[in-house]
């Protein structure tokens, strides 16, 4: 039975690349090493419901059509739109993302990624203060103090702790967990917190206060710290600051608990400053625990192609960027866009009600392998191959390491990249009477 | 078969010893040939200055420049050099453009082409992230590219040097170049990247690297010898230790002296020292900081085993980006600037810090002078490569401005007039009256690159060379660059024609075509028994310490769509 080794898991930002998959008769028969989430996604390609064929909504019902008809209908929506939102693209390959950006540029659209509702504020924090980070192997090989802040990797990134952080064995940490201290800062005692050496329960939305107090302690301004900050005693804050200063390599790994709570990007900005201060005493790094397997990739590709990581508005012909004005939710809530194309994402399930209501009112194109609540709103539905299982391509891990995902089984579904290329050609044809696709 | 005839070109091609001579150039299928048929398309250069396409031998245009972009969305809107920076909407022929120091990938290709450049070398690529560099390469139109692979703080390298296993070291380098599709060996602050893994640095050539029991001197020499053993086309490309520290000119000369004992096996240098401006500082602190360029130039004038590039400063905003992690942290603390850092497991470090160079700052003024002093004090232009270490010293779009510093004493004096008094007695530039000719400028911007990178088809217009050609709107007989520096700057900012591989890519400063460039990489052969022994050591590294499997580490063919494989047999 053919066995494919070193398969890259296309579920979360860990992009574990040591999965073994057994394939027979173009069917996945077994998956080894993957966590429960990755396992489910990989075998799910043939057990979960798929969008079986392209569809167009006629008289309120989605009716099966050919790819050509669906692409033609989608291209007409894009060509007739004065302002389109292109959203998602974080669970697909960088090659497809690149084409989605080109399509947005050609159609003068706003394009945004799922970072809009997760680590977008981390990108803003980087713009404010920088991002002192490292690759995951630096944590594995060196880190003797790991702080998980506002994240719960046991459930969200199940192999993170064994493969890259708390439990992993590295060059300078040969005894794994025994060579490290693990601290969890969160509003509730999560399953990750239960395994920590120290759990610090923080009041909801007061992360910025605690980071600021820690900076005061690290910079020798203890007197400025009140008795209690963010629900944490001064003694505990001073203790944590001492632990940080006396560790050889401190890793602060943070999640949506601090990016989407009060103070938003200011939290990441403050953590970056904390790392800078701490580096006066020891080595320290920070890293966002990115969720979708290629949400980092969208940020990377968008940045090199447009200068900006998300929320890019091409209406002027060149990229304009102002999150808060040009983010996906901003343009939906203001009812500013008159059409939308969603790829590899599900705003129907995750966006605020007001935004979803507008999505339901405008022509909506969905490109996805699987049906989801967004499908219920869509006017044109185009099924795609599953990247990392049915098609190869690049994804960026949470630490910005690019890895090539493998093709495990063949499919007749078109890939996201092919669908987007077809759309570019068709939109050009409609708008300018051109059919050739210039290579840049 | 495509043919092109360029008539009445005033050719400046130092590789052939041609100094502004009127001649015709024949092109067939992307190469310079003896003659073409009467069907050839004709361009009449009408006596304009014509050179081989420019070749930037040290630039940061792919890879960590993306960190620079992600920290500086403000840069995307900057338009300090109209026509070569800022916002430009997409057109029928071009993608949208943004930026100044950290432009988007498309802008990099178009803007270099407008300057008459057709080849660039990205100077720092950790193997683990090389795939990213190649992804950006694919989106930089027009230009041919190559990348230098970082080895100066690599665990496997340091262990082989410590354990005195030079053959396995060479085998590892060969494999690392193949894995990253790299062109040569880059060393940044030898050993310093590993020390930075613990928040520390190495202070000089003989400071031991923590936990690895080797010194920077041993790393430099070990890699220098491995480079020659493999007979690689380029020498080791070295960013010296102690970059940015007053007094560092001594470390720089020490490093240069170290390589006196490394014998080159090809007709090229055994050492290239990069952005020497940042490593030519005298004094003991920023208080008594002054130029160290005369001492470096004295040494370089007396030897023949090395080349260097300038790292010329441009006043205004810049973004520093380097694998020298500790220097970037120091910059950020000193300048109270934002800071990004990215240490790469088992391989190296890196950091990015934006800053502004001001002529009002005596330190910046002296730094500006040092770059020019190095170019003028070193007598032989075949030892000097022109760069700004873009965007560390300033963006490449300022190259035409910088040429005028080298070609016009009058222009220099105009700038020096604005300097604070304290700066003037820290530099020797006001006393230098040398002015470079077009011939010398051509050496520094394309001919030396052909030699030091062993690319005989680049940087010249001999029969057989690539038809990469820049025609500038300058009539050499009718211009005096020492006084007409604004005309020189204007002409070098937008070519009359840039021709890439026989295709007109720029005409009258506008992009005409956007072909995809090639990527050069080196495939060095080593004996199979040594390769096998090295692979066993490497397997341990991957099984125990890397977080990416060995089979997923190598850059695949898909990332190098137009590869040029350079095979070498050195063993």
From TrEMBL, chain A:
TM ranges: none
Keywords assigned by UniProt, alphabetized: Oxidoreductase
BP GO terms, sorted: methanogenesis; respiratory electron transport chain
Domain of life: Archaea
Gene3D superfamilies, A to Z: 3.30.200.210, 3.40.50.740, Dimethylsulfoxide Reductase, domain 2
EC numbers for this chain: 1.2.99.5
Gene Ontology cellular component list: membrane
Positions of the Molybdopterin oxidoreductase domain: 50-424
Enzyme class: oxidoreductase
CDD domains listed in its UniProt record: MopB_FmdB-FwdB
Protein's recorded name: Formylmethanofuran dehydrogenase subunit B
Source organism: Methanosarcina barkeri MS
Automatic annotation (TrEMBL), chain B:
Single GO term (MF): oxidoreductase activity
This protein's UniProt keywords: Oxidoreductase
Pfam families, per database record: Amidohydro_3 (PF07969)
TM stretches of this protein: none
The EC number(s) this enzyme carries: 1.2.99.5
Organism superkingdom: Archaea
Keyword hit for Zinc: no
Keyword RNA-binding (UniProt): no
Residue ranges annotated for the Amidohydrolase domain, each copy included: 41-506
Enzyme kind, highest EC tier: oxidoreductase
Name of the featured protein: Formylmethanofuran dehydrogenase subunit A
């Amino acid at each position: 039975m053919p066995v494919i080794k070193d398969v890259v898991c296309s579920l979360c930002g860990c992009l574990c690349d040591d999965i073994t998959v057994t394939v027979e008769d173009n069917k996945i028969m077994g998956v080894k090493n993957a966590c429960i989430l990755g396992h489910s996604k990989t075998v799910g390609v043939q057990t979960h419901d798929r969008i079986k064929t392209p569809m167009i909504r006629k008289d309120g019902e989605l009716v099966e059509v050919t790819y050509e008809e669906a692409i033609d209908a989608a291209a007409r929506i894009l060509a007739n739109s004065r302002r389109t939102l292109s959203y998602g693209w974080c669970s697909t390959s960088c090659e497809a993302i690149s084409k989605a950006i080109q399509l947005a540029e050609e159609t003068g659209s706003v394009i945004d990624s799922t970072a809009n509702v997760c680590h977008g504020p981390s990108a803003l924090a980087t713009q404010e203060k920088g991002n002192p980070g490292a690759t995951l192997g630096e944590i594995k090989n060196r880190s003797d103090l790991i702080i998980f802040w506002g994240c719960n990797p046991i459930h969200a990134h199940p192999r993170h702790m064994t493969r890259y952080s708390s439990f992993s064995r590295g060059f300078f940490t040969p005894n794994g967990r025994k060579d490290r201290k693990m601290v969890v800062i969160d509003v509730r005692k999560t399953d990750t917190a239960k395994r920590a050496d120290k759990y610090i329960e923080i009041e909801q939305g007061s992360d910025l206060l605690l980071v600021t107090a820690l900076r005061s302690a690290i910079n020798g301004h203890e007197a400025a710290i009140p008795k209690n900050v963010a629900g944490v005693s001064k003694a505990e804050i001073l203790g944590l600051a001492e632990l940080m200063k006396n560790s050889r390599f401190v890793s602060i790994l943070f999640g949506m608990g601090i990016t989407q709570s009060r103070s938003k990007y200011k939290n990441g900005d403050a953590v970056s400053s904390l790392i800078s201060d701490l580096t006066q005493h020891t080595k320290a790094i920070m890293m966002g625990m990115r969720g979708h397997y290629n949400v980092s990739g969208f940020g990377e590709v968008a940045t090199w192609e447009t200068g900006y990581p998300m929320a890019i508005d091409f209406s002027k012909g060149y990229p304009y960027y102002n999150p808060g004005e040009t983010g996906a939710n901003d343009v939906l809530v203001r009812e500013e866009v008159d059409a939308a194309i969603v790829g590899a994402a599900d705003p129907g399930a995750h966006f605020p009600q007001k935004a979803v209501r507008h999505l339901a009112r405008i022509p909506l194109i969905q490109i996805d392998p699987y049906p989801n609540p967004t499908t219920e709103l869509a006017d044109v539905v185009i099924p795609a191959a599953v990247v990392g299982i049915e098609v190869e391509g690049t994804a960026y891990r949470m630490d910005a390491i690019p890895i090539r995902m493998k093709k495990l089984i063949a499919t007749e579904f078109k890939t996201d990249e092919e669908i987007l290329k077809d759309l570019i050609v068709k939109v050009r044809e409609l708008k300018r009477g051109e059919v050739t696709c210039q290579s840049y | 078969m495509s043919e092109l005839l360029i008539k009445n070109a005033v050719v400046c091609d130092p590789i052939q010893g041609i100094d502004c001579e009127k001649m015709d150039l024949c092109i067939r299928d992307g190469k310079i040939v003896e003659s073409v048929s009467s069907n050839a398309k004709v361009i009449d250069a009408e006596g304009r200055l014509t050179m081989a396409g420019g070749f930037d031998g040290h630039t940061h245009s792919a890879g960590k420049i993306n960190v620079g972009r992600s920290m500086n969305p403000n840069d995307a809107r900057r338009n300090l050099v109209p026509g070569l920076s800022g916002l430009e909407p997409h057109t029928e022929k071009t993608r949208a453009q943004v930026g100044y120091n950290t432009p988007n990938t498309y802008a990099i290709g178009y803007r270099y082409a407008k300057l008459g450049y057709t080849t660039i070398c990205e100077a720092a690529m950790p193997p683990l992230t090389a795939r990213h560099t190649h992804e950006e390469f694919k989106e930089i139109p027009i230009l041919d590219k190559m990348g230098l692979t970082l080895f100066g703080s690599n665990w496997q390298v340091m262990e082989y040097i410590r354990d005195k296993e030079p053959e396995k070291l060479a085998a590892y380098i060969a494999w690392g170049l193949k894995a990253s599709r790299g062109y040569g060996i880059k060393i940044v602050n030898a050993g310093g990247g590993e020390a930075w893994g613990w928040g520390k640095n190495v202070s000089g050539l003989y400071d031991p690297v923590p936990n690895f029991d080797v010194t920077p001197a041993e790393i430099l020499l070990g890699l220098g010898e491995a480079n020659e053993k493999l007979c690689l086309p380029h020498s080791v490309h070295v960013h010296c230790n102690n970059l940015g520290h007053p007094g560092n000119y001594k470390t720089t000369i020490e490093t240069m002296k170290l390589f006196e004992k490394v014998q080159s096996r090809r007709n090229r240098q055994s050492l290239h020292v990069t952005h020497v401006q940042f490593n030519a500082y005298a004094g003991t602190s920023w208080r008594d900081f002054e130029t160290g360029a005369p001492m470096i130039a004295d040494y370089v004038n007396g030897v023949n085993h090395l080349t260097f590039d300038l790292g010329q400063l441009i006043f205004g905003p810049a973004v520093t980006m380097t694998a020298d992690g500790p220097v970037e942290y120091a910059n950020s603390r000193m300048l109270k600037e934002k800071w990004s850092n990215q240490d790469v497991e088992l391989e190296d470090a890196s950091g990015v810090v934006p800053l502004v160079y001001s002529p009002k700052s005596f330190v910046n003024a002296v730094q500006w002078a040092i770059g020019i002093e190095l170019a003028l004090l070193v007598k032989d232009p075949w030892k000097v490569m022109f760069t700004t270490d873009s965007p560390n010293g300033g963006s490449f779009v300022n190259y035409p401005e910088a040429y005028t510093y080298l070609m016009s004493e009058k222009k220099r004096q105009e700038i020096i007039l604005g300097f604070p008094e304290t700066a003037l007695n820290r530099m020797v530039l006001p006393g230098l009256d040398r002015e470079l000719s077009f011939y010398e400028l051509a050496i520094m911007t394309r001919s030396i690159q052909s030699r030091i990178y062993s690319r005989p088809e680049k940087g010249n217009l001999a029969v057989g060379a690539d038809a990469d050609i820049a025609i500038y709107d300058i009539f050499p007989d009718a211009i005096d660059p020492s006084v007409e520096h604004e005309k020189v700057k204007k002409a070098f900012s937008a070519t009359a024609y840039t021709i890439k591989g026989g295709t007109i890519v720029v005409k009258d400063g506008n992009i005409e075509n956007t072909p995809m460039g090639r990527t050069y990489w080196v495939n060095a052969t080593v004996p199979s028994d040594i390769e096998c022994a090295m692979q066993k050591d490497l397997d341990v590294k991957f099984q125990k310490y890397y977080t990416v499997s060995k089979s997923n580490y190598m850059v695949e063919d898909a990332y190098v769509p137009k590869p040029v494989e350079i095979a070498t047999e050195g063993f």
